[in-house]
Design brief:
This is ABC transporter ATP-binding protein. It comes from Clostridium taeniosporum. The protein has 214 residues and is α/β, with parallel strands linked by helices. It has a single domain, classed as Rossmann fold (3-Layer(aba) Sandwich). The protein contains seven helices and ten strands. The strands form two sheets. A six-stranded mixed beta sheet has the order 6-7-8-3-9-10, with helices on both faces. A hairpin with a 2-residue loop joins strand 1 and strand 2. The protein is globular. The two termini are 18 Å apart.
């Protein structure tokens, strides 16, 4: 479970999130909708600890992200909209390294890397580098990076942006499989209302720095 309690985030004099509260239950598939500039990406950065907050708290399974950062962050995987690829490691070695960094032994990391590559249908591209992948494959690799440490909660920021229709359908099926077969809790940020409607069992709308509608 992810609980956001009375969260306030400012950038200098600009109020981005104001007393924002939200509960995401275990195995929810929650869609987050809102126009540009209302704080959707900032909210993700707060949840992942990238941004410091002014007020409030974020709880993962009842434990504060700020009091127990290592333990709570291991339960979260995030896929940002922008590509993030390592120039020096192929995708197999990148995933294995990330798995070990998050506490898996070498043998566990190898096993988990094989599992994840198969899940995202990139097992035949294991020795490729991120910049060698097609657009749809890059998205799948980004998702692979977000789940390599087997987190309970997956957060995705506009995962289908810039992807053609066929690749979108493949991506949607992957997300549905993660939710139903691996029992992941998913927070999906999207501009596409049909995407939210087809994938999510809950949806919220942010307006004027606050939760406007659920």
């Amino acid at each position: 479970m992810l609980e956001i309690k009375n969260l306030t985030k400012n950038y200098k004099s600009l109020n981005v999130l104001n007393n924002f509260s939200l509960t995401i239950n275990n195995n929810d598939f929650l869609g987050l909708v809102g126009p540009n500039g209302v704080g959707k990406t900032t909210l993700i950065k707060c949840i992942t600890g990238i941004c410091k907050i002014q007020l409030g708290d974020i709880l993962v399974d009842k434990k504060s992200l700020f009091k127990y950062p290592y333990e709570t962050k291991q339960k979260i995987g995030v896929c940002f909209q922008n590509d993030t690829f390592d120039r020096f490691f192929n995708i197999y070695d990148t995933l294995k390294f990330n798995a070990m960094y998050n506490g898996l032994s070498k043998n566990e990391a190898i096993q988990r890397t094989d599992e994840v590559l198969k899940l995202v249908k990139l097992e035949n591209k294991a020795k490729c580098y991120g910049n060698e992948l097609s657009g749809g494959m890059k998205k799948r690799f980004q998702i692979a990076q977000s789940i390599i440490h087997n987190p309970e909660i997956i957060i995705l920021d506009e995962p289908s942006a810039g992807v053609d229709l066929q690749l979108k359908e493949d991506l949607y099926q992957l997300l549905l499989d993660l939710h139903s077969k691996e029992n992941k809790t998913i927070l999906l940020v999207s501009h596409y209302l049909d995407e939210i409607e087809n994938l999510c069992n809950r949806a919220i709308f942010i307006k004027d720095c606050k939760l406007f509608l659920e």
